[in-house]
Amino acid sequence: MGSGGKRMKKRVVVTGLGAVTPIGNSVEEFWAGIRAGKTGFGPITYFDTGAYRCKLAAEVKDFDAAQYMDKKAARRMEQFCRFAVAAAGEAIADAGLVLEEEDPYRVGCCVGSGIGSLQAMEREYDRLKERGPGRVSPLMVPLMISNMAAGNVSITFGLKGKNMDVVTACASGTNSVGEAFRTIQYGDADVMLAGGAESSITPLGVAGFTALTAVSLSQDPKRCSIPFDRDRNGFVMGEGAGILVLEELEHAQKRGARIYAEVAGYGCTSDAYHITSPAEDGRGAARAMQAAVADAGAAPEDITYINAHGTSTPYNDLFETRAIKAAFGEHAKKLRINSTKSMVGHLLGAAGAVELIACVKEMEEGFIHRTVGFCEAEEEMDLDYCRESHEEEVPYALSNSLGFGGHNASILIKKYK
Questions:
Q1: Of residues 110, 251, 346, 407, which has the active-site annotation?
Q2: 79-95 and 148-157 are packed helices; what angle lies between their axes, rounded to 10 degrees?
Q3: Do residues 325 and 289 make contact, with C-beta atoms less than 8 angstroms apart?
Q4: Cα–Cα distances in angstroms (integers) from residue 177 to residues 180, 291, 365, 386, 398, in the given order
Q5: Which candidate in 110, 224, 309, 369 is catalytic?
Q6: Which of 244, 280, 328, 399 has the fewest CB atoms below 10 angstroms from its CB?
Q7: How far is the C-alpha of 155 from the C-alpha of 148, rounded, in Å?
């Protein structure tokens, strides 16, 4: 969990943010939406949902790839990659990074995607069935595979350092930030672009998650993604990308970078329990949170705020509540707990990264957003799930992600001193 040996761990800070989300295609728009309690839910427009039981999603709106990248390059990318490149470009600009002045082999990226491109898969499968194997696009594979968000970010910006795609389902974004954090701590890079990207609101994606009984079948945009509420009945599929620029502290100081926050701790575990359900006692997720807090050299009582995985499924929210109680004991009652998914839905492989961006902004402005749509929880769920937003100092923010397959990941950031 912590790194062994006598090596001095390097300090890692956040210097840039970039986001494409269902409530805004920049960090500024996303954050304004978060502060206002804006939600991004509406009827699916990408295909006819007449035969589908799930009708709502959180789609990215008015995204024009040509604003962010060369048109020809955009044609050789699927939507999840375009989102990643757009968010990465914003994060680099926000960090004031002049890449020409950096050693390209010391700047890397770790951008996760849970699924890659279902669009490419569906399109080429139709072509295979209708026109035969000789007509499948030669670009099908490089368009579809999930590592291409990281690949395209690296190619677009000339990043020649470590280049990774962590695939841990809904924990991909958080694990990506954590592994980038470790990369810099260990001295393998000075700068890492880290986060996740996803775009899977497709016929196959929606049908698959519906068959799994994981998504909300509500047709009311105000009552579809309601984490921790007693009426919650499934998550709402979202899409987008979140990218953070992580940087070794001295490197950031040397170039006079603005520092948003310090990445303090990272913990991950496995439930080793079930392919979709989290462990009922929450012990695996609890250990990931405890590991992140211990990695930061913090005490459990130092933590005042958790950005929960909070998917709005009956099991996740209950078991995550148990996990928080197992990790923090009596102190759990004093924690503010919210879910960004109440506004943007579940961005799958991008969720953890976008939620961590929310944490960074909350810390910067001393503002903990409300869990929109949350009215009342059931008996066992008796923690503070932020029915209202709060203006207060955020010394630490713990962000949780729990993925299908039992992946638990927690990242802890703290106010930079």
A1: 346
A2: 40
A3: no
A4: 5, 16, 22, 25, 13
A5: 309
A6: 280
A7: 10
